[in-house]
Batch of 2 targets.
Target 1
Amino acid sequence: MTESPLLKIAVDVSQTLLWIFTTPTGLLCLMVGWMLVFFVRFFKALKDRSLLLAASGKKSGLISGVSVLMDELVSVGVWMAANIPLLIGVVAILSVLVALSGTVAKVDEYLNLQQKIREYSLVLKNLERRYKVAKVKCVKQENGVTTLSIQYFDQNGNAVKGSQERIEINGQDIFIDALVVNFAYSGIESGEKRNLAVPYRVFSEKVAQKDGVPLKIASAGTVPFVYERAEYQILGMNKEAFDARLSELLAVARDAERARKAGMVRSVYGNAVHRVMTKDDVFFIWVEQSGGLTIKEEYVF
Amino acid sequence: MKKNRIMGGIRIWLVTILVLGAIASGITLYVKFQKEKLEKLKANITRLKEEHVPMRFMVESRGDGYVVAKVKLYDMDGNEIGVAKSTLKGESLFLDFVTVPLEKKYLTFPQAIFTDAVPAQNGIALFPLYDRNGFPQVFAAEGINDALKNDLSTLFSKVKQSGAVDGSFGSAVHDIKEFRAFDVDVVYRVIARLKGGLEIVEDDQ
């Protein structure tokens, strides 16, 4: 609101008035000002009286000076008494101006804070956000071999049609390994960036990672999506969105250190979240906007 | 007539001052509430971005199919509490943690180190490195009280029995050789986030 020039002037004027009438320095300045005006008037009157006395052949002395001073004091007093309504009016107008600008300043502060609250709430919301990456279900467990059903989710949290896959692995503590890219907080806070997680391999407490099972979106021995362009539908994006995401990811992956130093990403690494599973156990893998992967239950209303 | 005009003027002035004063007072109260809210939001944002570093590590050397790694553990005040050094078969180094939900945050217990060629169960166990008579020294902090110490010890004993804590999960962070392996002689830190996520970044301290 203080952006309006008129209100800005009102606020400036009222702040000046408040400074003059409520601070010791202001009051001192006011008194000095009054004294200056009074002395100018007094010396002018004294000069006039001297000229008058000189014209009548008399000399001005201390008595005439005191007399002029008294005259001037009385004159100021009379002027003030005669203009009490005017003075009251001026004080009233000034007090309204001060109150108005004070209120305007408060409204302005309120609006600014409200805007800040909106911005910080959005930042917090963006930081607290998490995105579902995959649902892992133990469908069978026999002779130490676990059969899993894995379902992937798109950027909007919807299950990607046809992405479900079934894998078997020796062991019970199931590790779902993924490439994770955590972007700089500036991008996350503004909502421009989403941290990325691409699961590419399953292993267990008994099976070493390199002997693990590559996931459907992977081709054996490599990190998947980079080479499997034909499988772009698996991420539930259209080709343009997928290509854009892919080139973003590739740029980061190719020179993670440079991207980190440029403030584009915070970290690029592998993250295998794991949990001991028994038949019918289900868990969801999430990529957290504050950083990293987690296993959390799905919120059901 | 003149008196009425004066009284009218005074009335308008009084009402104006009162109304403006009331608005300003109301807004002042609300602004106080807004400021508190803003401070809370800022504190929550800071907490989400806060870095708890339970571990720093370094690959000391790397050969044909093996990795020599040195791992240091830290308490909540950043004091070093344990060191492990090991030569492991493999190329990618995995640092495994148990993440346990506690109220609105997550606690992270360093669990093991292994590699892409070593199954997790054959990795180097890290619990003994910070188990001080049942208390997980990684959560030691100045001013910690006995009740909290006991609670953490109880939690730690459950964590040591894999999967015994509701909502807990394991999280192994590692390098990916296809993209970029950990550089030799460079110190990295593992960052545990409030929401349970883990990150690895080059240590700039």
Note: The first helix of chain A runs from residue 5 to 22.
Target 2
Amino acid sequence: MAKITVDGRTFEVDDSDNLLEALLGLGEDLPYFCWHPEMGSLGSCRQCAVVQYMDENDERGRVVMSCMTPVTDGAILSVQGEKASDFRESNIENLMLNHPHDCPVCEEGGECHLQDMTVMSGHKDRQYKYQKTTFNNQDLGPFIGHEMNRCITCYRCVRFYGDYSGGDDLAAFGSRGRVFFGRTEDGVLENEFAGNLVEVCPTGVFTDKTLSAHYTRKWDLQSAPAVCTGCSLGCNITVSERYGEVRRVHNRYNSEVNGYFLCDRGRFGAGYVNSDDRIPYCGIRDANGVYEATSAEDILSHLKTLLSDAKSVVGIGSPRSSLEANFALQTLVGEDNFYSGLSAVEAEIASLQLQVLNSDLKTPSLAEVEDCDAVLILGEDTTNHAPRLALSIRQAVRNEAKDLAKEARIPLWQDAAVRKLAQDAKSPLFVLTSSADRLDGIGTGIRLSSEDIALAGINIANGIDGTAEDDADIQSIVEALTNASKPLIVTGSSSACPEIVKAAVNIATALSKRNAETGLLICTDEANTLAAARLSEKPFPTTGADVAIVLENDLSLRVAGATLDDWLAQVTSLVVIDSLDNSISSRSSLVLPAATFAEAEGTYINNEGRAQRSFGAFKPKGDIAPAWDWLLRICHDQNLLTGVEQFDDLLGSIASANEDLAGAVDAAPNAAFRVHGQKISRMTHRSSGRTAIVADVSLHEPKQPEDNNSALTYSMEGTNQDSPGGMKAYTWSPGWNSNQSISKYQNEISGSAGEGTRGVKLFVDSSSQLAALETSPGGNSSAVSVVPNWHIFGSDELTNRCEAIHSLAPSPYALLNSATASKLGVKAGDALKLAAGEAPSLAVMLDDSIAEGCVICPVLEETRAYLHLPTAGDGLLVKDESWTPPADAENIISSDRSS
Amino acid sequence: MIGALISQIRTLWTVLQHTFTPADTVEYPAKPGWFGVTKNSTKVGPYLAPRYRGRIVLTRDPDGVERCVACNLCAVVCPADCIALQKTEDENGRWYPEFFRINFSRCIMCGFCEEACPTYSIQLTPDFEMCEYDRQNLVYEKDNLLIDGPGKYPDYSFYRISGMAIGGKGKGEAENEAPPADVRSLLP
Amino acid sequence: MPDEVFIYVIVFGTLLGTLTFAAVLVWFERRLLGLWQDRLGPNRVGPFGIGLALADILKLLTKEDWIPPFADRIVFIFAPTAVLIAMFMGFTVIPWAPGVQIVDLNIGLLFFLGMTSLAVYSVLLGGLASHNKYSLLGALRAGAQMVSYEVFMGLSLMGVVMLAGSFSLVDIVNAQQDLWFVVSQPLGFFVFLIAGIAESHRLPFDLPEAEHELVAGFHTEYSGMKFGMFMLGEYLGVILISSIMATVFFGGWLGPDFLPPFFWLAIKIFTLICFFVLLRAAIPRPRFDQLMSLGWKIMLPLTLANLLVTGGIVLLTGYQP
């Protein structure tokens, strides 16, 4: 700690910070552009000037850039000093020389860091009379808009895109007054985290195109703190609504999970909420198979008779529905008749994961991943399956650089210096996958088939236990892991191979005997896989029933065609609760419209066992209701869960029924929570148009809906300012309209964002030691095996319904090397069929970097269920003789931008 | 003290003098004002200055295109919250409102919207005779608001100054703009 | 006419006359304010809007008479009646014309002062009984203001009493046959004028009911005729103060013979009321602390000086009325 004096007041601050961090942490209003809490300092914008005095007698002082000046004990500073404020004012005038007269037509307007800082610096009148520099814009794909004129050359974009997230197709061009940030030519930004440019850019150069399509100013958005359902990591997001539509998703800071950044699937994938495929009302299928819309009362009474007449009832849960909905369904049908609704493979991996979570093995959070100094990835395509994890692994690899910097006594916030010093020095990273991985560039990529990955894993585990290994690769992996102070094993279900996961568990078990800091992270397919798997070990019923209730689950993604058809034939009445029309809801006899994550509250358990509460941004239209609410009403009709009326009650019954899930109650403040006696407002205090929005229908303004299930309000009533960081519906502070205002409520810069923000880690009472698991890898090594290939855009069921995401989804393909191709008797331009012809045709593409014997297939709606079948063996794949290649065969893998 | 007293007495005297000045009140619509405007040589109402704050209109720029860029500033400044609109874009990237609604049954004619408008699109006019028997008729949509002229500011065109490229105006063609930079040149 | 009947005529004449005049005054004041502020004032009901007086009374009588549940009921109801009683009592000593007077008390002036002092109770009690912070603040201000100005209101009249040698208003009028006391007691008149405005809490000294700060001050919670009584009390106060001023300083009914004595008095009262309205039209309200310091630091010393000088002169000259 160090004592500094700022404008006559003395404070204690952390001496490892720079002055800017310290001053912002003290709540000073100090303008800045190029510094970013996560990316450190560069000193390129010159905006954060303060006056530093030599000692008490120094009257003049000197202007220093606070972001480039370390905190020193006894420093005497002035933020308000005339010298510094004049400097800042003239500096921003210079930065604004070429800034266009665009604010009214700029998507950033109203939440623009440049606007805020200009006002804060006091610059009002433009004195420069000469011409403004202009640039031609580029088309950067369906997500990001580009308006280069607005640039103030702070270099944040390239630092994030290149240095932080490892992209290489965005760079600075030109010189002098012509510095341009863009690609060499028009095209989709390749990096999976490009969407963060929208938030990183302090002005409107990079804007959100999906927001712009139905643009709403930040002050008009009704938002709620939510949890992303795009993958198993549970990143925190703010989901925002206007006129009954989801308008955008922004990052919500959580120091333990996603920090400041999101992946593009999470950011741009929420559009499905507004999709035309939404099930808008309750429906009953009549004798002719025609759906008829009915009221909620009718369908509930219909269901009541149906359930009381039924001899057998089964309930199929969902890995993407909330814990509450799954629990309510379990209560409704009884524990024995409840199935998790996972695929067999997913269920096996999830149960392994539950074993790990209940053991003494350490499961790190994303923030802890960034501290790991050796990473081994086993058969997990992090970038596409759990994207935000890949970004954290990229930071973990920099730990070597940070160590070097510490040795050289360079503070870590000196970003450029740390990177220069380190050059290519990286912490070890090993990526064992079947096809090229985005992380190959920063580590060692090893291409093996799934079986061989599992085998290699076993060998590594043995190697750690002391058995000598001949293989040089394995030897180096063992060395790296054993030498590391915080080794991390990452695996998951992206290869749909439980043997790999078992091998990874064994490595972690072996390693944790030597190093208690060993982390093991298993990534599952869906946001709430763990909740579903925790409530039932049985994935799918083998026999039919009179009534089957399917909760938010497109079973065709998890159960392959024929098996599913057989089962459906044995079900008399199929009841589906879902939000989007899918292949199961279209075959049901009763449909109940469910709310999406953007309209409902729910608890999600992410892959590290962290329970997080998500809140809806708006009340859904008509009869649409949260799935848990539907199930609760059905339960009440059956005299179950009586006395449970609201969300908190339901959560309470979960806690009393399941001791290990009791922590979920504390994941967020409950509905009775108040700040200064007030609820927390979802709308900003400047929300506009209240008396005009529905005036075309009726002049009588309806009462704002009430929210009895959470501490938030569907209006501007209530407070935002003093609410806990994680419960804030939007990020705002006086004078700070942009997302940069989060520094105003963090405990310290990049510290926790206040109480109730980080979720609650479940399964923490884990003293049991995990014994080495039985593994049985191998099988027929000469046979061809199918490896599922996840795509950040297109593999996820829901986000794929978004137009922008779908435009980047691949068509079905089969990627294999030429040796495998000749074994199967196909060549490029041919097609293969999975599962002996049942699944769709896959266009054959050759890539010799693929491990021999592997056929890489994309995980898509039409292929996903087949990829979870046993994936090795002869005769799995047959050539499609009737195949004619599509016209744009070149662009089959449009989202595989790495190629 | 004495000065203050004299000042008060002067005030009284000044006010007293107003006994003999005519009232400024115009008894509209009962009697035409003595400076009433005429239509067909009958006095119909008081003279209202162009800056009078009456019925709100949306204007067009000198090229005859909608001036409104749907920036939402009028909506946010509106103390009665009676303006709602939604931005959309034409094929050339020009922003305009998809719908624009003013609920005149709530409007207080404060003119903040006009003051906030960065494009001179929204303007208040000297027309206040807009009573309706059905309140619902006081909800004006864009069709009812948009007029065919530029209103009080005949020459202003926002897009001639803004840096955005729109149909008919490329990068670097706005006022005081240099042609687009050649970013591939490293020449100083 | 027998004396018993005559006294009833005077009593009811005074009662009805002042009451009617107060009601008309509401309209008249607004028209006058309109005139001076270049507006029209109320002109919708009847010729020149004169019907407004009646309309106002009807409105007040038919409005919901609401007693807040949190108020102290008995005091709440008593307060507005007190002001009316006090004001009417004040009128009993005014000599309208020679011999036309309800009662010629030999302590008439003191009786008047006593009655106006009672009015403060009404305001204080009304504010207290309302159990409302604005009412309470208004009542506090009214209490402080009236008690302060009471002091030199009475003292300012003592010069006149010395010169007239009597507290009887008839005697005081008669003492002005040669010279109005406004000439011989200009300072006394000035102080009494200011104190009178403050006493009737009229603008610019209406701080107890300053709408910008206190909603409506002590009568925030009052509605219907109870509010009407407060309002009537205020206008009666204006008439009363004007009457006393006309009587004490402007020679009362005295005047040239071509008009009957009562008319002279009426003209004087009317002119003074117009002056009250002019003050309202022209002068802004001071801050409360300014009001207080004006009273204690300027008015009180002035009054005492006036008393001293008058007394000195009377002593030295051996003046006998």
Note: Chain A touches chain B through 47 residues (CB under 8 Å).
